[in-house]
Amino acid sequence: MNSEEIDGLKLIIELSRKGVIKITSEEIDFLENIVKRGTMPTLDDSNYNKFNEIIDKVYNKMDHEQANRNKQRLSKIDNLHTKKFKQFLINKVLNDLLLLNTDENVINTIKEISEKSDFFSLDLTSAIKLVKQNLNKDITLKKEELKLLISDCLSQYDGAMNDATRQAFEFNDLLYIGNTCADSRPICTHIKETYNGRLTLNQLESILNEYCPNGIPSEEMITYQTINGIQRTSTKGSGMIIGTTVENFSQFRGGKGCRHTAIWTKHRNS
């Protein structure tokens, strides 16, 4: 056997022992003996038929499992574009914002508007104007508070769609877009300064384990440097939303009012 054939059999054995490929322990032992012997069974070998049956079984199982994964993936991709799924995301975002003690009157108004028009595709100025026109009660929020709430609605919806896109397309790289400023939160500053806003799924998991372990913003105090050498002291999880995980990071990002955009992509720019 050449080195590629040996490596191929070793990979099949390894994946089988991990349960990725479903063959019996007897079949695994048989393949290990082939590797130890260093020669493939030939046509006149008594093990020839058994060897080919195992290899056919491996590839058939792999093809079937891959086909199922592709089918599930395509279903998720198609689902992204349905009106039903978009409404599901809208409801999720609005409910999440209500849990943050935001103005219920404004949230309900946005919900009513979104049922009649494509509110979440509007720019911020147009969205604010439309909400003001449709509010049933007097606005109790100050101008900047209303702007921040509507901005959060739009950005969190875009983020929730990005999170769903990551799962559908199995993206593993993240671009964290936007500049840091004097009051940027610890996690945002860390991502931008340490990773230049470009990180992998595994790196994000590691960061969240430190800044928001198990979805709970860390209370550990740190002193960190923002732009122009300005130093700030706060908790690591300052500003973050309870429940922030890898699965919803594009939606929640650094927390309420976060000005960054988190976009999942296939290949990370270097």
Give the gist of this structure:
It is built from ten helices and five strands. The chain has a three-stranded antiparallel sheet.
The biggest beta sheet is recorded as:
3 strands, antiparallel
Broad structural category: mainly alpha
For the largest beta sheet, what order do the strands appear in spatially?
Answer: 2-1-5
> Over the alpha carbons, how many angstroms does the gyration radius reach?
26 Å
The low-pLDDT segments are none
Question: What is the subunit arrangement here?
Answer: single chain
Order of helices and strands: HHHHHHHEHEHEEHE
Strand content: 5-15%
Would you mind describing this structure in some detail?
With 270 residues, the chain is mainly α. 56% of the residues lie in helices and 9% in strands. The protein has helices at residues 3-17, 25-37, 48-79, 83-98, 104-116, 124-134, 143-169, 186-195, 201-211, 249-252, and strands at 173-177, 198-200, 221-225, 231-235, 261-265. The strands form 2 sheets. Strands 2-1-5 form a 3-stranded antiparallel beta sheet. Helix 1 (3-17) packs antiparallel against helix 2 (25-37) and helix 3 runs antiparallel to helix 7. The mean pLDDT is 87.
